[in-house]
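I'll show a record.
***
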Amino acid sequence: MPRRNDLHRILLLGSGPIVIGQACEFDYSGTQACKALKAEGYEVVLVNSNPASIMTDPEMADRTYVEPLTPEVVTRVIERERPDALLPTMGGQTALNLAVALAEDGTLDRFGIELIGADLKAIRKAEDRQLFKEAMERIGVKVCPSGIASSMDEAKDVGASIGTFPRIIRPAFTLGGSGGGIAYNPEEFDAICKSGLDASPVSQILIEKSLLGWKEFELEVMRDLADNVVIVCSIENLDPMGVHTGDSITVAPAQTLTDREYQRLRDQSIAIIREIGVATGGSNIQFAINPQDGDVVVIEMNPRVSRSSALASKATGFPIAKIAAKLAVGYTLDEILNDITGKTPACFEPTIDYVVTKVPRFAFEKFRGSPAVLTTAMKSVGEAMAIGRCFEESFQKALRSLETGLSGWGGDRPEPTLEPAELERSLRTPSPERILSVRYAMVAGRTDAEIHSLSSIDPWFLAKLRRLIDAEERLLRGKRLDQLSSDTMLELKQLGFSDRQIAWQTGSKELEVRARRNTLAIQPVFKTVDTCAAEFASSTPYHYSTYERPVGRINTKGDLVFQAPTSEVSTDTRRKLMILGGGPNRIGQGIEFDYCCCHASFSAQNQGYCTVMVNSNPETVSTDYDSSDRLYFEPLTFEDVLNVIEAERPAGVIVQFGGQTPLKLALPLLRWFETSQGQTTGTQIWGTSPESIDLAEDREQFEAILRELEIRQPRNGLARSDGEARAVAETVGYPVVVRPSYVLGGRAMEVVYDESELNRYMNEAVQVEPDHPVLIDQYLQNAIEVDVDALCDQEGTVVIGGLMEHIEPAGIHSGDSACCLPSISLGAEALNTIKAWTKALALRLNVRGLINLQFAVQRAENGEERVFIIEANPRASRTVPFVAKATGVPLARIATRVMAGESLATIGLLHEPSPPLQAVKEAVLPFRRFPGADSLLGPEMRSTGEVMGWAPDFGMAYAKAEIAAGDALPTEGTVFLSTHDRDKPALIPVAQRLIALGFDLIATSGTAQTLSAAGLSVTPVLKVHEGRPNIEDQIRSGGVQLVINTPIGRQAAHDDRYLRRAALDYSVPTVTTLAGARSAVEGIEALQSKSIEIHALQDVHAGAESR
């Protein structure tokens, strides 16, 4: 069937901010869909609230709305743009739920809009737990013994009918298992059922009998309008049932299925997609198999492109989202050509001759109070993927891609000794560390059968892991490096052992192992991901490394000759630029850095370079096969990056765009480029030199520069012992900010108010050593923080790209604070000082490209503003995409051209751009995922993503940002106030404005007294320890619409934690700073007095030159 000509304009919904369960993979799918639909000649209208996504770049869609993803706002877009169809399957659960809401409220019918890809009936049948269960019964596919509940009474009835524990609770229409979990007793059952009913937009949960210990599989399935169905990829979870598939180590293709079992899953998948009625596109179907008798049940189906679709696409090379978009507009699979081969149609099922392993990355250390235990509710913040010729190779490569300090599956440090009881507990309990506990158990002499009985990990995987232990024992234990033969080295490398592991085991250094390998001619070869196991040649250079032995052949004379392994890297005569990506997403380093890497590639391609991307993150646009000229799916380690450099010999390498991951490699790479071997590649690091980057990161060297430039910084000191820390804090003066040196995302950073808190921090949070000092800074109270992104070229021209004023005060991590562009409250003198210091530092650090600086402005009672510098980072920052969207100036693209040697004058950017609208960036925080964690903001970053709101005035821009973040401000009701004594005088004007806006006020006794004394009407309410009914009762009974709570000091923060948790549980917006409260009041005022206006990116920046 040819493309549909009755459709002209198609509306695409994005997935909004990066959250746990819905991350960069939907930027990847949305970007692919935009490109595919535009290539077919359709006009694309996009709505997405995430400014850090590639899909919201102005050239991706014809009309781009960076607006909140709510039915009201999308209806406004529909009224203005009048699309013919809505494609809801590319934006995760957010887009799917939004499409359902627009269909059910009549909006789509009213404007004659057709749902394409999946219609309302199919979405309901797949997502509604009861309808799905009935559909499966009709086609004879087994589902787990279960029941549906829409209330707590119904949940108890279903629980009674199941009878036994544990039970699994799965909410309907949610993402990443949000609100669900495993209940092991009646108390947990009640709590999880309640959170599940709250999390489900339709208040529906599925309660299942536990299948803990069963094996879990996923199949990625595609269907077209002619009812052709292909299985794109099978994926197997290494962890047994009970761990969300996003939190499990997964392997593709499935490894432990017999052919008969695989065919049964395949047949059932085809029957399911047909019964559910997903007319076109990709679906993800999850199964469980009982290892005892082979019994199969279906767990669930996602009638859309899913998280696993990105993994399956990167694993096979088959572009699921792109093909799904084409199928949605009428094509059939046999009419679409496979981009990778350029010859085969998309109805050819992918075949792969390698193994892919995905390992999740976690951030439990940022959510103290929440146990590091994995359940059916997803908690990982990112993932790494690796490709190898066998499971062992891809598994070890994936572990070293995680960037958690592992060089593989252990063997790079002393083995810990665990008590037998502790070891058994760690094998029974699913956690991020369980895979290492398997190793410790093997080293301790436990058999595979014992480990299987405790962990339920399949014996096949355990046998493969045992091979790694055996190889270490047989090939490495007690050996010197010069004793390793070529056969030994080859076997180790084929099993995925890194040079660092071999170095540790042989008492040598990593580069010595590399030299030994080269001497033995054991070098990696690069193979191609081609979708067809080399049956057809690939037209896209998408590579992975592996190790092969020479191939023996009989020549025409009958002699046996050996041919060295050959790489599949093709030649390209253009100058090459290599970009090092950011690796797995984590808090502090997410999609913003991938955005920068993509822009570097796009910019360099426009300048005629052949671009080479190296990354290990399967979720991102940067690892799409058509984002760069060449893609290497490899760990971002020194060894693996050198391998690619030697294969490609690029003219330049960019290390400043991928966050801390490539920056950690910058100095080692620079030193290697200076060696005779490095010089043969002709490669240089482009942009700011690694020495300058190190200069800015080294506290003592940076201080010397500030003194030289007469730039003021907060009083500070460096402590290498507990005693030094106390002395420095006394000199600096409490409160102080303490943190370890060299951190990402403010990890282990805290504000401490007295010596007892400092002592606790030194004991609990850090291990202070001479090589790892603790930094102690004066905490600037009542200061406004400012972020600046600037560009500097080789001619010494410095241009500020964006100057952002933070809404939360200094002391809240910049990644967790809302910020606005342009500044709304700073005086001209302070702004001029900030700009002058920015230019001076950019020049002194010899910046080539981007630099991010953070300042604090302290305002005295007489209005005088004093500026302090907090830090300077001569690299891309997480604010670059936001600034680009707000100003229309693509900073990362321009920075790439500057790194390549162009001047800002040549590029045409000599003045700070002026944003046409007031823009506000708001952080999105994952506290609901971590029961027990406190939602109080501090100097340690905990947000997973961001949204943007913009409008002609600050109040409406802030209100829109809060709506987009899922924390819509109320316009009526009751506000609860509880502040520290120091904040009480400043709270009075906020309270006055709230009363003027029509709100009722309730407050704890101390705050109520202050407000009453000021003549304000306020009702006192009890704290929890004071009796009942108290504030928690009022929150839980729906009597509070906004919480303003500003505790100061550890004890006060602890005392009020219960009410912040109650507000979180009941989705009551909570503000924990007075600056945030003032902004909230402005937002409420705007919502009461004006209607929300929408703005297309292309209209806002009309006339902006393309760079």
Summary: The longest strand covers residues 798-809.
